[in-house]
Design a protein that fits this description.
Blueprint: E1 15-28, E2 33-53, E3 56-68, E4 77-86, E5 91-98, E6 102-109, E7 116-122, E8 130-132, H1 134-139, E9 141-153, E10 156-166, E11 174-186
Antiparallel strand pairs: 1-2, 1-11, 2-3, 3-4, 4-5, 5-6, 6-8, 7-9, 9-10, 10-11
Length: 187
C-alpha cells in the first residue's frame, strides 16, 4: 500500500513491534489468586486496502500478536486478525481471534490524525461485540473488552487493555488488565 495516510490513526502502527518487561494482571488458577505475570510480546501490522463493502471503503492492517512468559519457546497467548479504518464514519476497529476460542470486534470513534484512540467490544452487542466458546462462557466469560492505543513517537506506542470477566471465583466482575509499551524493530 503506497498511501499510508489512508489508514487514518492506524498509519502509526505499520511495522513489527516488541516489548519486554510487560505485565499481565490476571487470575492464576494454580495459586487460586490474582497475580502478576511478566511477559514479552511481538506484534506485526501489515497494511492493505482498500476493501469495498458497497459504498463503505476500509483500509486496514493485517494483525498478528504473540506473548511469551520469561524464556518460553511457545507463546502462552496469540491473536490474529485485522485492525480497520473507516474514514467516512471515523471508526477504528480491531477484529481478531484468540486461540482460546474467543472472537472480538471492538470499535470506537477517532480522528484520522489521532494519536490516542479506544476500541470497545461488549458481549451481546450487535455491532462491537465479543463471542466465546461454551467453556469460557461458564468459566471466564468476557463481558467487555477495552483497549486504548497511544502513539508515543515515531518508533513507540503503548496500550492499556482491560478484559472484564465473569468468573465463578469472584462475586463481582473481574478486570483482567495489561499495560504494555512497544518499540519498533522493523519499519
Amino acid at each position: 500500500m503506497d498511501d499510508l495516510d489512508k489508514l487514518g490513526p492506524l498509519k502509526h502502527l505499520v511495522g513489527t513491534w516488541e516489548g519486554d518487561g510487560d505485565l499481565d494482571v490476571s487470575y492464576h488458577h494454580a495459586e487460586g489468586a490474582v497475580g502478576d505475570t511478566p511477559f514479552r510480546e511481538r506484534t506485526t501490522f501489515s497494511p492493505f486496502g482498500p476493501v469495498d463493502n458497497g459504498t463503505q471503503q476500509l483500509y486496514g492492517l493485517d494483525y498478528r500478536m504473540a506473548a511469551w512468559r520469561g524464556d518460553e519457546v511457545d507463546p502462552f497467548h496469540t491473536e490474529i486478525g485485522y485492525w480497520l479504518w473507516d474514514a467516512a464514519e471515523q471508526q477504528v476497529l480491531g477484529c481478531f481471534l484468540v486461540r482460546r476460542g474467543t472472537a472480538v470486534l471492538a470499535g470506537g470513534t477517532a480522528d484520522a490524525d489521532a494519536t490516542t484512540f479506544t476500541m470497545v467490544g461488549e458481549q451481546g452487542s450487535a455491532t462491537y461485540g465479543v463471542i466465546e466458546n461454551r467453556y469460557l462462557a461458564d468459566k471466564a466469560s468476557c463481558v467487555r473488552y477495552e483497549c486504548t492505543i497511544t502513539i508515543d513517537g515515531p518508533d513507540q506506542w503503548s496500550y492499556t487493555q482491560t478484559t472484564v470477566l465473569r468468573m465463578p471465583q469472584f462475586p463481582d466482575l473481574y478486570d483482567h488488565t495489561d499495560a504494555n509499551p512497544r518499540r519498533r524493530v522493523v519499519g
